[in-house]
Design a protein that fits this description.
Helix content is 32%, strand content 16%. The chain has helices spanning 44-59, 65-74, 81-104; strands spanning 12-17, 22-28, 31-32, 38-40, 114-117, 140-142. Helix 1 (44-59) crosses helix 3 (81-104).
């Protein structure tokens, strides 16, 4: 991300969604504000577990990680429309939860552009996925070809 900061808005929230954590980085004048950076210890692994719990509770079926990722990435999957809809609804819950977390920590996603990056980014972007449904969707960007660095190795 660092090599692209100059091309992005001067004030920006970078949300790195990984498998185990969500890292939030605020930049001002293209420089990360270290004192405002936070890590939330819940991300895609927990999201997928929650999705599977709801799918099981409502349909008595379980999904593989790949089946959930199919909906994350493409907005559809080759299984029942009912199950796809449940996955989409739970992805929306996850995305809105990230936005709520931003607000809880004093960030203003309605006023500051947000870019999602990282190894777990597929949970927050793509056709039919949740960020487009959030109220501040015009402030959201998705950088699909960026990895935040060596920290992604364990995600």
């Amino acid at each position: 991300v660092a090599d692209r900061l100059g091309k992005l808005p001067a004030e920006l929230l970078i949300v790195d969604i990984g498998s185990k954590t969500v890292d939030i980085i605020l930049t001002r004048k293209h420089v990360p504000v270290e004192s405002d950076c936070i890590t939330i210890p819940s991300a895609l692994i927990q999201c997928m577990a929650n999705i599977n719990n709801v799918v099981y509770r409502k349909t008595n079926r379980t999904l593989t990680e790949e089946q959930i990722q199919q909906v994350m990435m493409y907005g559809n999957a080759p299984y029942s429309d009912k199950v796809v809809q449940i996955v989409k609804e739970e992805l929306e819950v996850f995305a809105k939860g990230i936005e709520a977390t931003l607000k809880e920590h004093g960030f203003e996603p309605e006023m500051t552009p947000v870019v999602y990056v990282g190894g777990g980014r597929d949970g927050s972007g793509g056709e039919g996925d949740s960020p487009q449904d959030l109220p501040n969707r015009d402030q959201i960007g998705l950088q699909t070809d960026i990895s935040s660095g060596a920290g992604d190795a364990g995600r």
